[in-house]
Design brief:
Shape: elongated
CATH architecture of one domain: 2-Layer Sandwich
Oligomer: single chain
Strand content: 25-35%
Number of strands: 4
CATH class of one domain: Alpha Beta
Order of helices and strands: EHEEHE
C-alpha cells in the first residue's frame, strides 16, 4: 500500500494590521440659553414684591455680592435663541420694569 501524502500546508496568512480605534465623537456643545435681565439692585424685598405681583410670570432672582454688599438681579424667562428673548423683551407686560431690560446669555 502506498501511503498518501498529506496535502501541503500553507503558512497562516499574516493578520491584518489592527485598525486604529475610532476617535470618540466630540461631546455636543452645551446649548446656549438666554434670559432677560429686567432689573438689578440691593433690595431683595423689592424683587420679592415684584414677583408676588406677577405670580404667573417666569421670574427668578439671582443673588450675588457686589463690593461686599448683597446684590440681586431679576430675570424673566429662558429662551433657546437670543432673538426669541429680544422679542419677549419687546412684548413684556407693561407692569414689569423693562426700560433697562437686556438679553443675556446664561
Amino acid at each position: 500500500m502506498v501511503a498518501a501524502t498529506p496535502p501541503a500546508t500553507q503558512p497562516p496568512a499574516p493578520a491584518a494590521p489592527a485598525q486604529p480605534a475610532a476617535a470618540p465623537a466630540p461631546a455636543p456643545a452645551a446649548l446656549q440659553r438666554y434670559s432677560i435681565n429686567l432689573i438689578e439692585g440691593s433690595s431683595e424685598q423689592y424683587m420679592r414684591a415684584l414677583m408676588a405681583r406677577h405670580p404667573g410670570a417666569p421670574l427668578r432672582i439671582q443673588h450675588s455680592q457686589r463690593n461686599g454688599q448683597d446684590w440681586y438681579r431679576m430675570f424673566y424667562g429662558e429662551y433657546s435663541q437670543a432673538d426669541l428673548a429680544e422679542r419677549a423683551l419687546r412684548d413684556l407686560p407693561a407692569t414689569l420694569p423693562s426700560h433697562r431690560g437686556r438679553v443675556m446669555a446664561l
